[in-house]
Structures are given as C-alpha cells and as structure tokens.
Design goal:
The chain is built from two helices and two strands, in the order βαβα. It has 72 residues and is mostly helical. The protein has one domain. The chain has a two-stranded parallel ribbon. α1 links the parallel β1 and β2. It starts with a strand and ends with a helix.
C-alpha cells in the first residue's frame, strides 16, 4: 500500500505528483499488487491532527480519484 496522502495537514497533494509516485512504485512492483491510501489515520495522536472534517473528506476523495485513474 502506498501511503501517498498525508493525514497530518489539510494541504491537498497534486494529482501529477501522485501519478508520478505511483509510476515510480510501478517500476518495482506490478501495479496490480499496489494500492494507494493515506499515510495513517486522521487522529494518529492523542490530540488528533489539525485537519478539518471537510479537508479529511477531500483527502479521501483524492484517494478515490487517483485509484480510479490508475486502476480503473
């Protein structure tokens, strides 16, 4: 699993960067054996991370978008 999307901040990763990182991983493993996810949960510390529910949803939608683009 490629944890390409940070759950620590609300800044959204760029699709071009995600595509490039998936392609790089694809040089080492077949794409059929890979997946994409957030790096960890959105509350990975006792206090949680300073990221709004709206940004969390956008991050999860980004996971879906890159997965659909790469794997259909």
């Amino acid at each position: 699993m490629l944890g390409l999307i940070t759950s620590k901040t609300g800044r959204l990763e760029r699709m071009d960067d995600l595509r490039r990182r998936v392609a790089t991983a694809g040089q080492y493993f077949p794409l059929a054996q890979l997946g994409v996810s957030t790096q960890c949960g959105f509350a990975s510390s006792v206090l949680g991370n300073p990221i709004s529910p709206e940004k969390q949803q956008q991050k999860l939608e980004l996971v879906v978008r890159i997965a659909r683009e790469v794997w259909g």
